[in-house]
Amino acid sequence: MDSPTKIIFNPCENKENKYINILVDGLKRHGFEVNRLDDFLSSWKHFQSIQLLHLNWFENLDDSSAASMWKSYFRKLVVLAAVKFGNKKLVWTMHNRISHEKKSGKLSQALTRKLVVQADAIVIHSTVSSAILATQYPGIQADIIHIPHPDFVDVYGPMIPNKVEDINSKLRLLFIGAIKPYKNIELLIGLAKKFSSEIHLTIAGNPSSDSYRNELQAMALGTYNIALDLKFIPDEELPAYLHQSHLLILPYSLESSLNSGTVILAFSYGRTVICPRIGTIDDLRAGDNILDYTYRSESEHAEVLQFQVEKALELWKNNPNSLIEKGLYMRELIQKQNNKKNVSDTLIQLYESLMN
User: Fold this and answer.
1) Fold for domain 164-336?
2) Looking at the DSSP assignment, which residues form a beta bridge with residue 10?
């Protein structure tokens, strides 16, 4: 019997994101032996056995302190040097336009340039990524492979069926995911205050720091149409959060955001979104089934976001089921365009083409 092909998929596990589980499980079912990046240089024998490395978010650095940031940077340079020395195949997935972290921005960009130069293939999840790469890295040599972000249908448990009696007197908006400054949570709190009698906003997720948690709590103090669930949301609770909303509101930064797993999560559980026209949105070509928008400045962002909330309110008041219907349409669409089995199969085809 042939021995399994040994690869590294980094990270190979992530308790906060089933994206990794979906891809790694698909690779294992196909017979790949998936190893951890931390073990890459554990022994000469193990190093020799690895044929391919696939790196996700590798350009992100630990910016908790200057010392940690530089240590993280040099450790990753060692990994890239070892990959080159061992003549290993290298795949990198481009998840963002630029790193979301401001402190390590320049070092992260330097690391990204090295990844782009060294990679045999770059996986992109949205069509616009190809043009961004061509602009930022003229003369890029790596193969650029478009593989959609996998759907999350039933991954966090079954979708809770919708019922007419679930509708109450306010439009229920939900933000869910890691709570970080680039996600513009402050905009949401300010917006909710303007619509205190018409919308109810839930913000659910774990803040990036205690100071940021305190800042958001202070902003929302005394506002009775905002629920702050500032904690890690367990997987099994996600369907209920989604079910209790009419739609998600995700005012991401267009400067850095490119793809969004939370957008795919919303569609997977039958909810549409208010969201900037990032790559994930653009690729789906879903027309008015998504309340998308664009902006050129922070002040304009606040204006167009408010306009989309007003639009959602009008749709909901005219037909209480209209937003749910859009969400169900999106669920069907991504099961075709982002089918997780097709995504895994395409990734496996890429690996085999590189190693053969």
Assistant:
1) Rossmann fold (3.40.50)
2) 55
Q: Where are the domains of the chain?
A: 6-150+339-355, 164-336
Superfamily (CATH H level) for 6-150+339-355:
Glycogen Phosphorylase B; (3.40.50.2000)
Amino acid at the residue 111: L
Low-confidence ranges of the chain (pLDDT < 50): 1, 164-167
SS3 sequence of the chain: CCCCCEEEEECCCCCCCHHHHHHHHHHHHCCCEEECHHHCCCCHHHHHHCCEEEEECCCCCCCCCHHHHHHHHHHHHHHHHHHHHCCCEEEEEECCCCCCCCCCHHHHHHHHHHHHHHCCEEEECCCHHHHHHHHHCCCCCCEEEECCCCCCCCCCCCCCCCCHHHCCCCEEEEEECCECHHHCHHHHHHHHHHCCCCEEEEEECCECCHHHHHHHHHHHCCCCCEEEECCCCCHHHHHHHHHCCCEEECCCCCCCCCCCHHHHHHHHCCCCEEEECCHHHHHHCCHHHCEEECCCCHHHHHHHHHHHHHHHHHHHHHCCCHHHHHHHHHHHHHHHHCCHHHHHHHHHHHHHHHHC
CA 54 – CA 79 distance, rounded (Å): 12
- How many angstroms separate the CA atoms of 167 and 237, rounded? 20
What is the Cα–Cα distance from 192 to 307, expressed in whole angstroms? 13
Distance separating alpha carbons of residues 217 and 228, to the nearest angstrom:
8
Instruction: Show the tokens assigned to 96.
Output: 């963002």
6-150+339-355 and 164-336 share one CATH topology?
yes
CB neighbour burial string for 121-138, b if at least 16 within 10 angstroms, e if fewer = bbbbbbebbbebbeeebe
